[in-house]
Design goal:
heterodimer; A: mainly beta; OB fold (Dihydrolipoamide Acetyltransferase, E2P); four-stranded antiparallel β-sheet; 10 strands; 42% strand; globular; B: alpha/beta; Peroxisomal Thiolase, Chain A, domain 1; nine-stranded mixed β-sheet; two-stranded antiparallel sheet; 12 helices; 11 strands
């Protein structure tokens, strides 16, 4: 996991999903049954307990499945295709949908080890750096 | 509980009609359904409509094109499963004894391009902003996992589109009435692996309608009534760490409920319409309906078993991929096709062997409606 150093104020693409300073995704843990969720939520879907705890999630996981988007979605920060999209299974059991970065799309495979990276995707009108999360293959990881 | 019969169905042709408004699309479908039933508009006691993107009051405007008797007009939005949901609401109301005769209508006019493009900044999700949520994405993610688990190949999914387009050449209501070869489907532009352009349902304008009534009233209408034998609905259950199989369990469970209500099993279904917004959808749904074991659906279709003359005909009208997918109208278009097939009125695409029962599987934003019809 790395955070790329920048000078300007860094803001998330959308609030509540990750902590830029910590460089971690923020999920929820149910104090009653131990289930983890991403993104965070208020009520446990497993046991209906309320008041789930915010937790920093693992920064590494494995690709459960993936596809390669050959086109861009208008209005999204992904301006060029192709790029990988994956469901990443974290060790806690939470699933994270993500864009894959720093990899040749043809090298992506199910079971591949990937790690979180939070990086700038654009600048807003005030010059703030807008940050998003991605996953990328772990160097030397199993694939 | 009293039974409900479908006594008339009608469509407006599916396609792109920039010059027509939804009132016209809906009016044509409604009049076709009324004429099919031999029913005067005045006998309709309530109307149940389904649409997604047509704005405030659209259900009222469409029904008022033909009927303005002061009747109840309800509107349902359940994404791509809106009009099959409206049909179920009509069943509930008739079975409760609130009405004897009702009209069900589905209609939609769609913009071209990808569904889910970012339009309203306040409603936009991270998945959309970050480029994660592309519409074929869920089907593509499941298809990639399916290929990994079961050894299926991209041509298996492409073949679903070949079959659909072949069937649609025999359907005058279909948006695309042109056959495609496997090479043409495989070589069309890749959208999200393994799904190519010709494996995606198009954006479509169209409308669909049905006249339904309590079975004991069916003799007032022309022709042989088709009975709504079973129906069930639901949404994907939460399963820990199950994100890769977004639909796993849901369709199986809903199908079981619908079969139980109908007193029928998968082996009794002679003709089927499933929700193939993208071609892998047909493979996954026939497995979930237990027409074949899990992992064998791709080969089942590849081998011709889901062809019109196969042992289990599926998407005889071309499915969403070829008939077209005007999201609010799709569910009832599936119903109309099954009605025509069970009556033996499907023309060149008629399934052989005098079909007795048929099934529709319609999915909308995660939820699913299954409706079983019989003679």
């Amino acid at each position: 996991m790395t955070i790329e150093k920048t000078e300007k104020k860094r803001i998330p693409l959308k609030e509540g999903l990750f902590d830029i300073e910590k460089g971690r995704l923020t999920g929820s843990k149910c104090p009653q049954c131990g289930q983890y969720f991403f993104p965070k939520r208020h009520v446990c879907l497993n046991c209906f307990h309320r008041d789930l705890e915010d937790v920093d999630l693992s920064t590494r996981g494995k690709i459960d499945t993936y596809t390669i988007s050959r086109m861009v979605l208008p209005g999204s920060v992904m301006k060029e295709a192709p790029y990988g999209i994956a469901l990443v299974l974290l060790p806690e059991g939470a699933i994270v949908q993500t864009v894959l970065t720093d990899c040749d799309v043809e090298s992506i495979s199910i079971g591949m080890e990937v790690e979180l990276v939070i990086r700038k995707v654009e600048e807003d009108e005030e010059g703030n750096e807008v940050m998003a999360y991605f996953f990328r293959p772990v160097k030397g990881g199993s694939s | 509980m009293r039974e409900v019969a479908i006594v008339g169905v009608g469509l407006h042709k599916f396609g792109r009609f920039p010059e027509k408004n939804i009132e016209e699309l809906g009016r044509v479908a409604i009049l076709n359904a009324l004429d099919d039933a031999g029913a005067s508009p005045g006998v309709i006691q309530a109307a149940f409509t389904g649409h997604v993107l047509q704005g405030t009051g659209a259900g009222l405007r469409v029904v008022n094109e033909v009927i303005q008797t002061g009747l109840l007009i309800d509107v349902t939005e359940k994404a791509c499963a809106s009009s099959s949901t409206a049909l179920r609401h009509a069943c509930w109301a008739i079975q409760l004894g609130l009405f004897d005769v009702a009209l069900v209508v589905g209609f939609e006019k769609m913009q071209r391009g990808l569904l889910g493009a970012v339009t309203d900044p306040s409603a936009v999700t991270y998945d959309q902003l970050a480029g994660i949520r592309i519409m074929p994405g869920v089907y593509a993610l499941q298809a990639m996992k399916y290929m990994h688990q079961y050894g299926a190949r991209p041509e298996h999914f492409a073949h679903v589109s070949v079959k659909s387009h072949r069937n649609a050449t025999m359907n005058p209501y279909a948006q695309y009435q042109k056959a495609l070869t496997l090479e043409e489907v495989l070589n069309s532009r890749m959208i999200a692996d393994p799904i190519t352009l010709y494996q995606c349902s198009p954006t479509t304008d169209g409308a669909s309608a049905a006249v339904v009534c309590a079975r004991e009233k069916a003799h007032h209408f022309r022709g042989k009534p088709i009975i709504i034998a079973g129906y069930a609905s639901g949404t994907p259950p939460y399963t820990p760490a199950g994100g890769g199989d977004l639909a796993e369990g849901m369709v199986e469970s809903i199908a079981r409920q619908a079969f139980k209500m109908a007193g029928l099993g998968p082996e009794d279904i002679d003709v089927t319409q499933v929700h193939d917004a993208f071609t892998p959808g047909e493979v996954f749904s026939i497995e979930a309906l237990d027409y074949c074991p899990r992992g064998e659906g791709a080969c089942f279709i590849w081998e011709g078993k889901a062809d019109i003359n196969g042992e289990k005909p599926v998407n005889t009208d071309g499915g969403l991929v070829s008939r077209g997918h005007p999201i609010g109208a799709t569910g009832l278009a599936q119903i109309a096709e099954i009605v025509w097939q069970l009556r033996g009125e499907a023309g060149p695409r008629q399934v052989p062997r005098d079909p007795r029962a048929g099934l529709c599987h319609n999915v909308g934003l995660g939820g699913c409606n299954i409706t079983i019809l019989k003679k």
